Fold each of these.
Amino acid sequence: MSQLRTGRPSTRRRVEPLFYAFLLPTVLLFTLAITLPAIMGVTLSFTNSVGFGEFKFIGLTNYVAAFSDPAILQAYGFTIGFAVVTVAVVNAVAFFLALGLTEKIRAKIALRAVFVLPMVISGIVIAYVFNFLFSNSVPEIATALGITSLETSMLANPNLAWLALVLVTAWQAIPATLLIYIAGILSIPSDVYEAAALDGASSWRKLASITIPLAAGYIVINVIMGFKGFMNAYDIIVGLTNGGPGTSTTSVAMSIFNGFSSGDYSYQMANATIFFLIAIVIALLQLRSTHGKATF
């Protein structure tokens, strides 16, 4: 009947039952492993549960306490600041490395392989290696050069420990971001650059008017994915500073995990729920600010 009314063949396609047969196990696993635990966690955030045994509902008590807890507020402040700075460093370095590795230079394939090596190494292994470097090698070099501010470990200095975390996290994160930027730059038609060259455009003009606008979707994706990942920073922080000196580099993920192990289960579930909602709001704001440029 729909075909007779519109005069056009129906575009609806019949879904094969086999599709649902393959989809069902994935949906079940996702529900059991992620959805149900998340619902249970949010529910328990309104209780006084310690993770087991009996509990009773206490309303918004945990949430009110979390918003007034100096330790949690400090963890949020550090985590957001760390994520913003690291995203900026990673994307700036990765983008300009991608520009170089897509030019006509010798051994660029080999160089790409070298640059992506850090992404295959465990974060905790990287953290322990750099912990040794910052605690031993860097102070010795600084002493020899007369740089007094680095003669002691950066990791023991509350004003410099965060910088060490940014450097190490960026070192591990740049390769994955680099690969996305290489793919984005290589997808730009060479004809566009040739036309710009005929018009006498300089290298900086090509970068500003062609490369960056046409790679904007890849930039947005890297920023969003990077910010989400750095907000969840945990393993490198544990291996480098373990949240110190004091609590100056304690991330939200660390405070949640430490609270679980110390018996503050429902309290930290409230913290985790707040953290989840903040992450969603930030992602939506980032997508809205791009006005659809994230599609490519």
Amino acid sequence: MKNLFCILVTYTKPIHEIEQILAEHRAYLQKGYDAGFLLVSGPQNPRIGGCIIGHFADKDAAIAFTHNDPYYLNNVAIYEIIEFSPVLHAKCIKEFVQD
């Protein structure tokens, strides 16, 4: 199975600054979905950041992905990257987690 990565996004600027580049951020994430390496993403509740789950070649690739995110490029968020090995998973994501 592929290792997965949970990317925790924490906003460092007020929400009105986040909202100004939200469409760019989501368009950037869409490229990851289109390429097949992102599984799910969305805002935290309360809205202090977000969470992105996907698979990358390694942690360096996950870091590189975050460094091209419009949030990073506009200095409005920081990222914590957690790599984990999926042991159990729902049948609906079987293809996503398998090598």
